[in-house]
Structures are given as structure tokens and as C-alpha cells.
């Protein structure tokens, strides 16, 4: 999970902790990217680093240092899946700390129990998941989505406790599951990564009230007001708040905006540095539309369907925005997907 103590120099030093406050992206970042002649080889070298000896394994500090280097490589060059299709599944599992033998028997037991208590709600959503993306539909069948989501409901049905947040199926979970089923090597891996992602990284986004989503939308308005007062005031003059125009993008962490390849590139970044940064990624998309929005008398017509996602410029703008936010506001942003307000 993202930690506020990690907030300050990754991009300043290009080697520091994942959530450190960077300077605005610019030529130094681009030079670093171009200076890497084979990013796939660099990532594979890091992923394939052997244990220290036959009897000595890496310490937590060794693992954290390796993750720090991995995040740096992701920031500077992304995950070059065209060169090695195995990279993204391996890296996502590492970033989510899903390692070791996966409990296949447990997943099979969940599936064997049949329809979960939320099956009807699940079926109402799964058939339209990324429905216009033919590549997704060819790789991920509806029954795979239903099985995974049913299993997730059963998993948490068995683990209910007064001291834990409850998890049931809620709107948007079908879209959040889609990238895992598309990218991971097996349905079993997708289930474990999705479960870890939901329960640890953004549990408040999937509560019955969608508490984390609504907190994120309020934070989007506050961040936009600081980052671009003119754009914020223009939208407000048309009675447009983030709740109205940005709900799908916040609910699904931008997975609702095609193309899927760009969504996956954006998720590489979000899994590496924290899902809270999706709020800034939505603002970045507004910036890419800024002139059109400001010149429009009816900007909601533009915002009803965002333009095709462009992950790299969105990431660069989001990284630059981190620097402009007050520390207290960024602290709220980091915590909003998972910290319960008392």
C-alpha cells in the first residue's frame, strides 16, 4: 500500500522512494529513457536476480531496494511488453506482492460453490465489460469474469469480521477485474492479484457507498482548483463538478477509457506508485482537452466521452502535478483509497 512517508524525491533523484514529490517532467526524464538501449533486458535482469546464496534469501530491505529500482524503470520507460510479453504479469505480481505458490485449491473450491449471493448483480454488469474492445473480448470471456467475481464474493463471505471492511460486489468491480484477466497468465493469478488489489490498495472504492470514489472526486475538484484555477472556474460556471463528469474515470481508474493498451500502460504506473495518482491522471486528461473545454459553451458534451487515452503524456502531466500540490492535500490524496475517516 502507498505510504505517505515515501512522498519526496524519486524523480528529483530518479532513484528514491515511490511516492516522493518530483519536479516537473522534462528533458532529463526523456534523456534517461532514450539512454536505456534495452529496457526489457534491464527489467529482466532485475526480475531474474538470484537469491544471495544457496541458504540465504533476500531481506526485506533487499526486496524494497529491488522494488525501488523496478519502479524507477517503469517510470522512465514503461513495461516494454512488445519485446517480452511475460514482463507485465511478473511485474504486476511483484508490485502487488503476490508471490510464492498460489492457492489453486481454494479458488477451485470457491468456484465449486456456484453462484455467489451477488451473482445477479454481477451478471447485470459483466456482459458489457469493455464490450467494444474486440481484442479483450477474444481473450477474456464473460464466464471468466463471472467466476472471478463470484469467487471474490465467496472469499470475503467466509472472512467477514466486525474489525474488517466488508466486501461484496459493487458497481465498477467488473471493469477493475478486466485488466487482471487480460494481462495475467492465468485466471488463478488474476484472482489473487485482483483480490490483493481491491482489499489492500483501494478497499474504500468498493464499499457499498463507494466512499473512496466520492472522496476521490472531491479531491479532484480541490486539486484542479489549485492546478488550474481558470479551468476549474470555467467548469464550475457550467455547474460541472468532478462528481458529474469524472465519476466513471475515478470509479474504474480510467479503465473505461480506451484503448486497452494505453489503460494497461497507465496501470503499470498506478500499480507502481499508487492508485491515488489516478485522480491526477484524470486532471491530466482535462489538461489535454483544456483549449476545447475553455472554448466550449457546453463542455459536458466533450466530457461525456473522454478522448482516447494517451498514457505517456497523462503520466508526465500527473507527475508534474504532484509538485504543485500542498503537502497536506497530497497526504489526503494518498490516503483516500484506503484510510477510514474517523
TrEMBL record:
Residues 82-274 form the Rab-GAP TBC domain. InterPro entries: Rab-GAP-TBC_dom, Rab-GAP_TBC_sf. Keywords: Cell cycle, Cell division, Cytoplasm, Cytoskeleton. It is found in: Cytoplasm, Cytoskeleton. Residues 13-39 are annotated as: Disordered. Residues 25-39 have a biased composition (Low complexity). GO terms for biological process: cell division; negative regulation of cell cycle process. PROSITE patterns: TBC_RABGAP (PS50086). It comes from the Eukaryota. One of its GO terms (cellular component) is Bfa1-Bub2 complex. Belongs to the BUB2 family. PANTHER family: MITOTIC CHECK POINT PROTEIN BUB2, TBC1 DOMAIN FAMILY MEMBER GTPASE-ACTIVATING PROTEIN. This is Cell division control protein 16.
Amino acid at each position: 500500500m502507498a505510504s505517505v512517508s515515501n512522498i519526496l524525491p524519486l524523480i528529483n533523484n530518479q532513484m528514491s522512494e515511490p511516492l516522493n514529490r518530483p519536479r516537473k517532467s522534462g528533458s532529463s526524464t526523456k534523456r534517461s529513457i532514450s539512454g536505456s538501449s534495452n529496457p526489457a533486458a534491464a527489467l529482466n535482469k532485475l526480475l531474474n536476480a538470484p537469491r544471495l546464496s544457496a541458504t540465504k534469501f533476500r531481506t526485506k530491505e533487499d526486496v524494497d531496494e529491488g522494488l525501488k529500482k523496478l519502479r524507477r524503470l517503469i517510470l522512465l520507460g514503461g513495461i516494454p511488453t512488445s519485446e517480452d510479453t511475460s514482463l507485465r504479469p511478473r511485474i504486476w505480481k511483484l508490485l502487488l506482492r503476490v508471490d510464492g505458490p498460489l492457492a489453486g485449491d481454494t479458488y477451485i473450491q470457491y468456484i465449486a460453490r456456484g453462484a455467489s449471493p451477488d451473482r445477479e448483480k454481477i451478471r447485470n454488469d459483466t456482459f458489457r465489460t469493455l464490450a467494444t474492445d474486440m481484442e479483450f473480448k477474444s481473450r477474456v470471456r464473460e464466464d471468466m469474469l463471472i467466476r472471478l467475481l463470484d469467487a471474490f464474493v465467496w472469499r470475503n463471505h467466509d472472512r467477514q469480521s466486525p474489525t474488517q471492511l466488508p466486501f461484496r460486489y459493487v458497481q465498477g468491480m467488473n471493469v477493475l477485474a478486466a485488466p487482471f484477466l487480460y494481462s495475467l497468465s492465468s485466471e488463478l493469478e488474476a484472482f489473487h492479484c485482483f483480490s490483493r488489489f481491491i482489499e489492500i490498495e483501494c478497499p474504500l472504492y468498493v464499499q457499498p457507498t463507494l466512499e473512496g470514489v466520492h472522496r476521490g472526486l472531491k479531491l479532484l475538484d480541490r486539486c484542479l482548483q489549485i492546478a488550474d484555477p481558470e479551468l476549474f472556474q470555467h467548469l464550475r460556471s457550467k455547474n460541472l463538478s468532478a462528481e458529474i463528469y469524472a465519476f466513471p474515470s475515478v470509479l474504474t481508474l480510467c479503465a473505461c477509457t480506451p484503448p486497452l493498451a494505453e489503460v494497461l500502460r497507465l496501470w503499470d504506473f498506478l500499480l507502481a506508485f499508487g492508485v491515488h495518482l489516478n485522480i491526477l491522471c484524470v486532471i491530466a486528461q482535462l489538461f489535454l482537452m483544456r483549449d476545447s473545454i475553455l472554448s466550449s459553451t457546453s463542455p459536458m458534451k466533450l466530457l461525456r466521452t473522454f478522448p482516447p487515452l494517451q498514457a505517456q503524456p497523462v503520466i508526465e502531466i500527473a507527475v508534474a502535478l504532484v509538485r504543485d500540490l500542498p503537502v497536506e492535500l497530497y497526504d489526503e490524496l494518498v490516503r483516500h483509497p484506503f484510510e477510514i475517516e474517523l
